[in-house]
Amino acid sequence: MIRSAALRSAAACLALTAIVAAEARADGWQWVTIPPSGQTGTALLLMDGRVLVSEILSNDWILLTPDSSGSYVNGTWSDAADSIHDRAYFASALLRDGRVLIAGGEVSWSGGQNTVEIYDPLLDQWTAASRPSWPTIESAPGTVLPDGRFFMGHINDRRCAIYDPDSDSWSAATDNPRSRGMLEGWTLLPDGTVLKCDVFGHPQSHLYDSTSDAWTILPNTPVDLVGAVRRMGPMIVRNDGSCIVFGATQYNCSYTPAASPGGIGTWAQLADYPTIGGSYVTATHSSAVLLPNGNVFCALGLYSKAPTYFFGFDGTTFTRAPDAPGPPVAPYLGHLLLLPSGEVLYTNGDASIYSPDGAPDPSWKPAITAVPRDLIPGTTYRVEGTQLNGRSNGSSYANGAGVATHYPLVRLRFENTGHVVYCRAFEPSTMGYATGSAIHSTRFVVPSGETGPALLEVCANGIASDGVHVTVRDPIAIDFDALATGTVVTQQYAEATFSAESGHENVAIAATAGASGPNMLATAPIGGLPDGTHSTTLDFPCPVASLTFAAIGVDSVGPAATVDVWSGGALAGSVAVTGAGTPSVPVVVDLTAFTEVTRLELHSITDVGGVGWDDFRFCEATTAAWSNYGVGWPGALGVPNFTCRTPPAIGTTLTAELENSAGVSTIAVVLLGVQQAQLPTRKGGDFLVLPLLSFTLPLAPGVTAIDADLDDDPTLCGLEFFAQALELDSGASGGLSFTPGLKLVLGN
Q1: Count of domains observed in the chain
Q2: Residue 155 pLDDT more than 60?
């Protein structure tokens, strides 16, 4: 394997003309400019655009990050955290939340063949996960289901199990009908079912439907795809919905799903493999990808012998592609992965990239239907559209490694610099694909760093959507303190234009009559003294979100007004403004429920002293946070803690943790409300929340987790909730221990 620049240069000199030609045209190979630090193996595309690569028979992992132009060829390598075990030829999958699951392995020097681990790219951390009830995993087949769970088979019998990443638990699924799962590749089809071709029961084939937890026995494959080697090739779904199953014999087949999910589809024999030197080359224990141009790119060879040959396959004809650079290796030692750039990463101990020619059919593109146009770094947003997950599984390895790329990636192309930045996407609404005209979505976080106008694209399987113009900007605040009293306000601010009703204008005035600054905005007759009783209109050139501002009574009596909110030329709603509204405690007008505000009309001023307006803030994200407050009351083991394992972010599952102060199984009462308190009780502790509701909870010794699903509703951002738990504890004075209060601020 090539691992040094010197060896790489020597290998390049052996075929200098071919390599230079390949770099000069689209259809060809290039080395990744910076060599990887170790012997590259399985490669997995993360939802933030990076590639996680295992090092062969090691617990070392490395990351390939594209450069600022989006180039993977010129990308950089960095070390990822070491996994707990080394392993080779293992089951793997990218989970819906962006984490990576690996399970088993044919080989592991540290005993990892029958263990499960999960990598969190956000934390750069591996953790042990639960395992199915059976003792042997090794080279188990598996795939992610449309709902995000992981479906896996036993290698030595017909048992199946499903892993739920949210609860870190396995449940039994219906046994597959007729054969064990060893050396099989299980592939998710466009209709949400899972196709498998039997290796130890060939030429049988089966279909699993997770919605009914049922298997369907399909017709046998038209020809034997397995043969004496008892292996299979990769399985790739094409844009027409058919699945090409590459055989370990000279034969290949295609399965076309039935019109209704779970129905019996049809098999068809495809072209035989080509011959080289009089022998058929096959995709036995090898890999393939669906190129953006619609052809399949596959690695073929003579089973476990070097070299590897590359071919394009259009469903009818195999066409020889250029050889990859570097010393020859056997096909099973290489892994092909489809990149968001439309190129193909080849990891075979080293790393090179294949750039195909041709372009996708426009109908294959993802299409964005909704996304916020003002984006703040560090903030979570949602993008909606059609075909966001693509039309194919994208990448496939013959058995074991799940390297499919059918999930959306979100990237920004900054218009001023040309820089390409991948956002961290997570929680797509489905892990299925080829979803047609159905609207699906994914959440994404805008990375910190560059700001400015950009095109936002969603990419799946190397095919990008048309870009949507957005602006990445820091949070914006408009106040009037820097203006002298009496300044007419119209277009001093690029983010908003202020205007008043006929015969009036907006002027800066002191927040307290007769005093100098801080200033606010109020209406006045043109050339006259401010009265604050007439209408003001704000127009935003770019739609804004997370909008709040202050209303202040000019005479310190209080505002009474109405705000009409417009979005895209239509009235989106009206908000009444009432309250005391003094300069020290203004009324906060909260319009965060409106996500794309283009105009505000401030009217119906009934306060005789008039209303002033100040501190317009928008595009600000409310960061999810929690904290403790107050003092608890001890039990046998001290004051019990009430904390959060995860921040209270909208659209996620909040996990709180409650300690047991008694040391034995007991019961707690959890109080919930929207207002904190400090009310002494006869039991010794204080109530630290005014409860609106309560519930009882059994406590085991130690720590008990409490899960709560938070709706993905932007109007919840900024809301505060308070909680406290009281525990039955014979060791506490009065028989009850009290936790400190727990404050939750919902946010992104």
Answers
A1: 4
A2: yes
Q: Which of 468, 622, 602 is closest to 533 using CA atoms?
A: 602
- 55 in a domain, yes or no? yes
Looking at 136-181, list the stretches that DSSP marks H as alpha helix, in order from N- to C-terminal side.
Answer: none
| Beta-bridge partners for 600 | 538, 565
- For residues 189 and 257, the answer to whether their CB atoms sit within 8 Å is yes
Boundary of a domain, candidates 472, 494, 513:
472
| Cα(426)–Cα(435) distance, integer angstroms | 18
**What pLDDT band is residue 660 in, cutting at 50, 70 and 90?**
very high
Q: Are 27 and 321 a contacting pair, CB within 8 Å?
A: yes
pLDDT tens digits for range 381-390 = 889 999 999 9
For 511, the enclosing helix (H) or strand (E) is none
The predicted structure's pLDDT at residue 621: 62
Residue 633 DSSP label: B
* Alpha carbons within 13 A on the beta-carbon side of 348: 26
> Distance between CA 627 and CA 421 in Å, rounded?
33
Cα(first)–Cα(last) distance of the chain, in Å?
46
Both tokens of 273, joined, read: 């493999």
SS3 18: helix
What's the whole-number average pLDDT of the chain? 90
Q: Which two tokens stand for residue 185?
A: 């590749």
Decide if 687 is inside a domain: yes
Q: Taking residues 709-737, what's their average pLDDT? A: 86
Please spell the DSSP secondary structure of 350-362, one letter per residue: SEEEEE--S---G
d(CA 187, CA 181): 13
pLDDT digits (tens, 9 = 90+) for 70-82: 999 999 999 999 9
Q: According to the 3-state scheme, what is the secondary structure of 484-495?
A: CCCCECCCCECC
Q: Please tell me what DSSP assigns to residue 9.
A: H
CA 435/CA 279 separation, integer angstroms:
40
Label residue 300 by pLDDT band (50, 70, 90). Answer: very high
What lies within 8 Å, CB to CB, of 543 at 6+ separation is 372, 373, 374, 567, 568, 596, 597, 598
Cα–Cα distances (Å) from 573 to 523, 570, 595, in that order, read 23, 9, 12
Model pLDDT for residues 362-414, shown as the tens digit of each residue:
999 999 998 887 788 888 888 999 999 999 999 999 887 899 999 999 999 99
Q: Is-contact 592 548, C-beta < 8 A? A: yes
Which residue carries 């009559």 as its tokens?
513
Contact of 630 with 741, CB cutoff 8 Å: yes
Percent of the chain with pLDDT over 70: 95
Rounded to 5°, angle at Cα 267 from 263 and 268: 150
Same domain, 440 and 569: no
> Using omega within 30 degrees of 0 as the cis cutoff, is the peptide bond preceding 203 cis?
yes
Block residue for tokens 């009703």: 501
Q: How much is the pTM?
A: 0.74
**Do both 603 and 708 map to the same domain?**
no
Residue 293: inside a domain: no
CATH code, domain with 467: 2.60.40.10
Q: Is the peptide bond before 132 cis (omega within 30 degrees of 0)?
A: no
617: left (phi over 0), alpha (psi -120 to 50) or beta: beta
| Co-location of 562 and 636 in the same domain | no
519 and 596 share one domain:
yes
Q: Which amino acid is at 32?
A: V
Buried b (16+ CB within 10 A) or exposed e, 415-436: eeeebbbbbbbbbbbbbbbbbe
Among candidate residues 164, 182, 200, the one where a domain is terminated: 182
212-261 residue pLDDT tens: 999 999 999 999 999 888 889 999 999 999 999 999 999 999 999 999 88
pLDDT surpasses 50 at 3: no
Instruction: Indicate whether 351 belongs to any domain.
Output: no
User: Would residue 53 be called left, alpha or beta, if left means φ above 0 and alpha means ψ between -120 and 50 degrees?
Assistant: beta
Q: Return the half-sphere exposure (C-beta side, CA atoms, 13 A cut-off) of residue 610.
A: 22
Range of the domain at 716: 625-745
